[in-house]
Amino acid sequence: xxxxxxxxxxxxxxxxxxxxxxxxxxxxxxxxxxxxxxxxxxxxxxxxxxxxxxxxxxxxxxxxxxxxxxxxxxxxxxxxxxxxxxxxxxxxxxxxxxxxxxxxxxxxxxxxxxxxxxxxxxxxxxxxxxxxxxxxxxxxxxxxxxxxxxxxxxxxxxxxxxxxxxxxxxxxxxxxxxxxxxxxxxxxxxxxxxxxxxxxxxxxxxxxxxxxxxxxxxxxxxxxxxxxxxxxxxxxxxxxxxxxxxxxxxxxxxxxxxxxxxxxxxxxxxxxxxxxxxxxxxxxxxxxxxxxxxxxxxxxxxxxxxxxxxxxxxxxxxxxxxxxxxxxxxxxxxxxxxxxxxxxx
Length: 345
What we know:
By secondary structure, the chain is an alpha+beta fold. It has two domains: 66-243, outer membrane lipoprotein receptor (LolB), chain A (Clam); 256-342, 2-Layer Sandwich (TolA/TonB C-terminal domain). The chain has four helices and 20 strands. The protein has helices at residues 7-56, 125-134, 273-277, 307-317; strands at 66-75, 79-90, 93-100, 103-110, 113-118, 143-153, 156-165, 172-178, 184-191, 195-207, 210-220, 223-235, 250-253, 262-265, 282-290, 296-303, 321-323, 325-327, 330-332, 334-342. The strands form four sheets. The protein has a 13-stranded antiparallel beta sheet, with helices on one face. Strand 10 and strand 11 (210-220) form a beta hairpin.
C-alpha cells in the first residue's frame, strides 16, 4: 500500500533534505579550505627549512673556492685532539686532510674519482661523524616537514620541525632554529634500535653571503662525542698540485647519481652464549668494501663490543651479499659501515 504525505509534511521533508545537502556541501568546502591551508603551511615550513639550511651550507655549486680549518676534540678510548683542513673548489674538485693523534688521512676528489691515502688500514668512525657534522646543512632536499612547532625559551623564539627523510622509515628527525635569524640550533635523530644522535650549533658568523657556526657539537646517546671549533674560514684557491693522488691511494669512482650498495643477504650474527648468559650487550662496528660482484672484502673492526660479539660479527659479515653500488649501469666498488647491535629483550 502506498503511503502519501500531506503537502506541508512533504515540503518540510524537501526543505530538510536541501538543508542537509547544503550542510554537506559546506562541510566539503570547509574541508577543502582546511586541506589547502595545511598544504600551504607545509609548503611554507618546507621552504623555511630549506632556506635555513641553504644559508648555512658552504659547499653549494655557486660557492666561491674556500679553505676551512677546524680544531676538534673527539671521544675515543680517551679524548683525542685533531685538526681538519678542507680546500674546496667544486663538488668534484677538493682536497681534505684530517689528523687525529697518530692517524692521518688525505682525501682528494678529482672529477669522478675519489682518492684516499691513510697511514692506518681503516678510517676511525669518529672521522666520518666529524665530516657529517661539518656538512650538517647539505641535506635539505631529501627532508620533508611533518610538523612545525614554535616556542619561547629564555625570551628567544625558536621554530622546530619534525621531519622525515624520503625513502627511509622509522627515523625520527627534529630541526630547531632561531625564528628571527633562521640559524639552525640543533638537529636530533632517534635511530633503531635504541640510539640517539644530537648535533648542536652556536656562535654563527658571516661568510660569503652565508652564516656558519663557529662551534659544533655531537652527542651520541647523551654523551658528548665531538666538539669542533672553526679556527679559520677564508676564500682561497686550490693548488693543482694538491689534486695529484699519492702512490698507493685507494681509488673509488664517484658520480652525481651514485646509487649506494643495497643489502641482499645479511644473516644476523648469533648472540654468543657466554655473552647472553652474562647479560652482556654491545655494538660491533665494522667498515667493509663492497665489490662489483656484491661480495664483501677488507672488513675492518673499528668499534668493539666484547671479544665474542666481535668474532661472531666478523665471521657472519663475511657471508653478506649486496647489490653493488651503481654509477648509471656500471657497478662500482664502494665502502660502507655496518653496526651489529647485541641487545637482550
